[in-house]
Amino acid sequence: MTVRLPLFPLNSVLFPGLVLPLNVFEERYRAMMRELLKTPEEDPRRFAVVAIRDGHEVAVAAPGMPDPTAVPERGPAAGFGPDPLAAFHSVGCVADAATIRERADGTFEVLATGTTRVRLVSVDASGPFLTAELEELTEEPGDEAGALAEGVLRAFRQYQKRLAGARERSVSTTADLPDQPSVVSYLVAAAMMLDTPTKQRLLQAPDTASRLRDELKLLRAETSIIRTLPSLPASDLTRGPTSLN
């Protein structure tokens, strides 16, 4: 079973259950938001988010920006080469836009939440914005997911403490952390300070248990590294920056 949705490529990975704030200013994505606003408020306003493998999140809008040799690009696939499908990672996440607010200048402020993992089947660049045919992926628990989730939560709390100590700040309470294995796996994947390829690997893990095993190794390794560092630049552990698209 496949579904066709608007496609929003980013230089980051969205996980199910995580909140995604967007500052939408490019015309192709403004057109997408105008189209989504046609959906009745009681129905989900859905689009798919995929991480960019090879390309630019923001298309070149003027000569020399940001590359001195660059020339302006236009169209829904600008910045993604002749084959947009090859420019993106194959697994992404559906986002449900709870808030789409148009500003006076025509840009949009959007707040969405990741819902379901999807696999890219094809990308269509014939319209004002990219759309994609997507295959929804089920989340299988795998073996010993419950026990692994408990271990990951313990390791994550230790990671938080080490990270807070390296930043010379107090750690926030973790008493309200979830215990459902799949939710734990996505929360930890989003919260850890990892590069995009590693986060992408976690998103496309074959099942929850496999993701948790990978996270347990990463948490132990990262905690060990942090222990040796005198300080780290301050940043909010569980929040990523708003995408400027």
TrEMBL record:
InterPro entries: Lon_prtase_N, Lon_prtase_N_sf, PUA-like_sf. Residues 5-223 form the Lon N-terminal domain. It comes from the Bacteria. SMART domains: LON. It holds the Pfam family LON_substr_bdg. This is LON peptidase substrate-binding domain-containing protein. It comes from Streptomyces nigra. The lineage of its organism: Bacteria, Bacillati, Actinomycetota, Actinomycetes, Kitasatosporales.
